[in-house]
Amino acid sequence: MSELPNPVDYAVPAFVVLMLVEIWLVRRRKQTRAYSPGDTATSLFLGLGSTIAGVLSAGLIYALAVWVHAFALFDIGMDLRGWWWAWIACFVLDDLAYYVFHRSAHRVRWFWASHVIHHSSQHYNLSTALRQTWTGFLSIAFIFRLPLFLIGFPPAMVFFVAGLNLIYQFWIHTEAIGRMPRWFEAVMNTPSHHRVHHATNARYLDRNYAGVFIVWDRMFGTFEPETDDERIRYGLVHNLGSFNVVWAAVHEWVGIAKDVWRAPWRHKLNYVIREPGWSHDGSRATSDTIRAAWLEKGNR
Amino acid sequence: MNAWQIIGSLIAVVAVIVAVRMMGLGEASIADAAEACDLAEAMVPGFIAREAVICGAGRGALIAGTNGEFVILKRLGSQYAARRLAAPVTTQLRDETVLHIESGDRWFGKINLSFPDEATRAAWRERLDQAR
């Protein structure tokens, strides 16, 4: 497989240390609601399960990447000295691909069924960052990176920078950091921007999809700044109400199956491809209807 | 990923959970009826709260809405989860002040709300029964 190591493997010890530091810090600040044992256990076991699921599907995804790369438009090398600009371009374009994936993951229920796991905690701390999907392969999330292989970026390079992207996103899952310097907040994804993304407050729903560079949200009209006037509520519009690890991992897939089974034939596909919360009789709430109701009340 | 990495990860997971528990994190309680109403309205789209009763020293709450609906809150970690109760609501009396309520959601579970006193429990149970 890849001749490069997975950088996430080397970052895991740092993740653990940083979580312990955050736990100590919130205790010191008397922010006793920042963590809870049950929630942390659920997040970490989902993270461990995700790693194992990723290993099981990695070979197939890598083989697919190599096959697609055979049709590449350009012949891009791996050598850092000769191709340093390609590494930078790959990192930036991979982050753009992540933005597209992430936006789709919130707007198409099939993709959401995998991604919802990451949003299923009502807490927001570094352990939330590790609450990752078990079913990414099933939701074919890897298709969003295929254009990079078609351009000509070697699969090993793409998967390496994707690992760096994932590592970057770890530290932004915290309430322990307020705002970064203004120039940093303007360009990079930060804890402040990502708190907005994890919020269920009407004003924040489906905003700030960025991975590393918040500029994508600013460019494509999905940016929302964090306000100090409103306390953030994290989690899902319809929270799980359970710490059950397996239910957290599969509940949306079960929901899709039930909805498709019950729906009239002409609406079945819509329960797979429409936005989360969509229903053929309009009986459920989507992020759009929640936001519209909130705006109707004269908010903004 | 090899077996040692999995074992190492498991040890790290347990260490972090133990640290959270040892630091005494994860406590929460609803302060008053107004907070319970705010939580219910925030978590259940379209629900407009009218009044609420705090149960079990703030670990849960039952909220009545303006349109005859009820929402139940239960503590989950240091946060609260909400469910709109679908009529008819199944309830059972437990002990002197506890009311057992079936949320209708298998994973949200069956909730035991401990009311401030027997009379309050009886009054709220009657209201839930009328929601049928």
The tally of domains of chain B stands at 1
Rg over C-alpha atoms of chain A, rounded to the nearest angstrom: 20 Å
Q: Sheet with the most strands of chain A?
A: none
- Counted beta strands of chain A: 0
Q: What's the structural domain tally of chain A?
A: 1
Which class do the helix and strand fractions of chain A yield?
A: mainly alpha
What average pLDDT do the residues of chain A reach? 95
List the uncertain runs of chain B: none
Instruction: Tell me the helix content of chain B.
Output: 25-40%
The helix-strand sequence of chain B is HHEEEEEEEH
Write down the CATH class of chain B: Mainly Beta
Looking at the structure, what is the overall shape of chain A? globular
Instruction: Describe the main β-sheet of chain B briefly.
Output: 4 strands, antiparallel
In DSSP terms, counting alpha (H) and pi (I) runs of 4 or more, how many helices of chain B?
3
Features:
heterodimer, A: 300 residues, mainly alpha, 56% helix, globular, B: 132 residues, three-stranded antiparallel beta sheet, 3 helices, 7 strands
Walk me through this protein's architecture.
The complex is a heterodimer of chains A (300) and B (132). Helices cover 56% and strands 0% of the residues of chain A. Chain A is mostly helical and 300 residues long. Chain A has one domain. Chain A is globular. With 132 residues, chain B is an alpha+beta fold. Chain B has a single domain (33-130), classed as PH-domain like. Chain B is built from 3 helices and 7 strands. Chain B has helices spanning 3-22, 33-43, 118-130; strands spanning 49-55, 60-65, 70-76, 79-85, 91-94, 98-102, 110-114. Chain B has a 4-stranded antiparallel beta sheet with strand order 1-2-3-4, with helices on one face. At the A-B interface, helix 1, helix 2 and helix 13 of A face helix 1 and strand 4 of B.
